[in-house]
Amino acid sequence: MKAQIIKKKGLAYIITEAGQKAVVPWDNLCDIIKRFKLTPVFSGNVKLSCIQSTREIRNREVEIEYGAGHYEYEAD
What we know:
4-stranded mixed β-sheet
């Protein structure tokens, strides 16, 4: 979804093509764009460089192999 983004001081004003509006801190804009899968359209001469968040790294699949073993359980 396309979203027009306007920067004013430390805030980002977001208006989506569906008419939704939001005001978020400029520092959180990368997370908002990724979370809502927005296609940003910036007004003015504004550039944004998003750094890969640690949240993406944590969400990657990890494969773990367990050794074959026999486990016994005693009921009380």
